[in-house]
Every structure is written in structure tokens, then in C-alpha cells.
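Aim 2 progress update. The chain analyzed this quarter is reproduced below.
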Amino acid sequence: MLAQQLLYEDVDEWIQTTRSVICAVFGDPSDATSRFDAARAGFAMFNPTQRQRELAQQNRHRFRLTVVKSCLDQLEMGLVGESPAVPDANVARQLDEVVHRLGFLDDEALHRIVVRDLAELAGATASGLHKSALLLCGSVLEAVLVDVLDRNRAVATTYMGRKKFPDDASLPKLIEIAGDASLLPDGRHLLSETAIGLARTITDHRDLIHPNAETRARIRIDAQTTQAMITLLGLVVRDLSEADGRGDIKAYADK
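Predicted C-alpha cells:
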């Protein structure tokens, strides 16, 4: 509470900031439209099971509450100075949709980890922590792709040469495998050409761990690069969710 008083001597300002954070994350409370139903109506082939419905709803609530808590914690600790870290409404909506589409993941423990990392991603983006945001975004992308591709490790391993799958699989390699047109027959696919094309323009996020590699590769760390990675994340999760609805993930697992 002391940190709050130092930052906000005016209680009304603190209350208004809290409301702004909540509104940015949860959206307009008057909008009763279910994003889940809207997504389902938009994709005739997407017929989620009851368990997938429950997981999607649980994850959305967990994600939103975690984002709110993260933002309020930053405010209380004074990490954001005079400009409170309120999530950008567009980014919050994008990440909410990502959480909403995670029903294709098999591992419930992975669900929780991914939702947690997405909440941290929202907080990092709001605070302008672009390097942290890029690392988190790349980590989530790897997690969802490995979850799917590891359902047929024998096939995925054929793309690795002498390296091991999934331990040595970089994000570009995972995109390459999931986006290979010959991976599945009869027009079935895991990723769209849109996601594959965007992925080719983004440098491997793992280079950011090493400052020298970051310098050599001339990686741009800014809001625009962060937005591009979030967009790629949204496209990949959308594609995998739709592939699950079409039965293409099962076709890959059974190959």
C-alpha cells in the first residue's frame, strides 16, 4: 500500500487506473457476445468437444485475471513510474483470441504454462519490454508447435538430420516442418501459407538470448517487431485450431 500511496496520492486516480487496466483486458462489459460462439460460427468445420469448451473458457478467465494481477502488481511496486502499464486494447484482444483457441493442446499442464506466459507477454508488451515480449512470444510458439508435432515424433525427426527432435528444433525448423506441403496428403495441412510467409520474415527469437548474436544479426527490438511476432502467434494458433477441427492434426498423428 505504501508504494500505491507514493505513486497515487489521489485515491480516485488509483481507482480510475485500476478500472482502465480491467477494461483494457476484459473489454467492454456491455458486450455480451461470446467470442467462442462467434469463432465457432465463423468456421463450420470447427466443432469443439465439451472438454475443449471448458478448457477454452477456463483459460480465458485465467489469462485475463493473470494479466490484471500482473498490471496491478507493477503499479503497486512502482515499476511503471508516472505512466501506468495498461495493456494495449488491440494486443489484449489478440492474446485473448489466442487463449480462446488453445483447445487443440493435449497437455493440460502445458495449457497452464502457455496461458501464464501469454499473460506475462501482455504485461511485458504494456510496459514496453520488447525483448522480454519477443522471447515469451517465441517460447509460446515453440510450445504449441512441439505439442502438435511431437504427436508423431518419428515423422518430425526425419526433418532434423543428425539433430534430435524436439530438443534441437528451433522455431524456424518447427515452422518448416508444420508448413511442409508434403507433410500430409490430399490437401490436408497444419499451417497456412500466410503464417509460413510471415514466419520467414522474423529472425529466430533465440538469438536474443546472446547479445553478440543479436548484434551480428542486426535484430530490431521494438514495438513493430513485437507486434509482428504477436500476429504470427495468432496466425499459427488459429491455423492449428482449425487443423484440429478438420481432423488434420489427427491425420498427422496417425501417419
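Residues 50-77 form the longest helix (28 residues). Residues 1-11, 30-48, 79-85 have pLDDT under 50 and may be disordered. These observations will guide the mutagenesis experiments scheduled for the next reporting period.
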